[in-house]
Amino acid sequence: MALFDLPLDQLRGYRPDPDEPADFDAFWERSLGEAAAHPLDAEFTPYDAALTAVDSYDVSFAGWGGHRISAWLNVPAGAEGPLPTVVHYLGYGGGRGLPLDHLVWPAAGWATLVVDTRGQGAVNHHSAGSTPDPHGAANPQSPGFMTNGILDPETYFYRRVFTDAVRAVEAARSHPSVDPARIVVNGASQGGGIAQAVAALSPHVKAAFVDVPFLTHYRRAVEITDKDPYQEIVRFLATQHGAQEQVFRTLSYFDGVSFAARATVPALYSVALMDPICPPSTVFAAYNHWAGPKEIEVYPWNGHEGGTTVHRRAQLRKLRDLA
């Protein structure tokens, strides 16, 4: 993929006004309040992962609508005292897989909660998921998740996902191995977009690692990339004539730029300048609005894979400072 977006010097100053409705904060306060009416009821069942250095738990808790959400909790074996913890959100289409897929953070001495994304985890080569989405789409949709319920913010898929993700932080904090004051949220692509939202919506997050985030600056994304998942929105609009105003009104409640502007904890971002899936200008739009301390690692010659293990090393060093 060639360089196709703004040059880096312009990206560093790219700070478009957030496209958000007047009731953005009220919408999320109400959404989280409705979820809080359901007991969290977090369950941690010891799981035989055949690992000697990590203790694993099969986790279930009540997310949006009281629906059960699955996760894994990996804890360094023999660790004493409550541990700093990474709450990890997954990329588009992926599921939680198995505990052995998530060993980097425990190897650094951190507990890790790996959160399933409802309805996902049965796509191509991605890891399997085990969390259904009992709340069906309220409108015709392009295959995928981007247009599920997109004609109304009340029914939009990511209202449920972001709410689940906030509840996941609460579930992690309820386990005795987790230090409730040292929670870092993390994810790449869809997971990065979810982490952005949770950092703004949860008062219990200490820091955020946001990698090549999806679900950010939607209007520009659909106009400059022809790659999925953003193209799901384009295909929807190409058939549902006259829906444009409703669609972008809904998306304005879920835009990472608005969440970033409300997040005050330290953040470490990554961006790849040849990323055709999450264009770099959409990442910088959120990063430049982030309200707390922040750093961004730029990978000029990478695509959506971002900085891969080189960036993970940077994150591990940052975790060491936060511990």
Automatic annotation (TrEMBL):
Coiled coil: none
Span of the signal peptide: none
Protein name per the record: Acetylxylan esterase
Organism: Streptomyces castrisilvae
Entries under InterPro entries matching the protein: AB_hydrolase_fold, AXE1_dom, CE7
One Pfam entry name: AXE1
Source organism, top-level taxon: Bacteria
Matches recorded under Gene3D superfamilies: alpha/beta hydrolase
Domain Acetyl xylan esterase, first and last residues per copy: 1-316
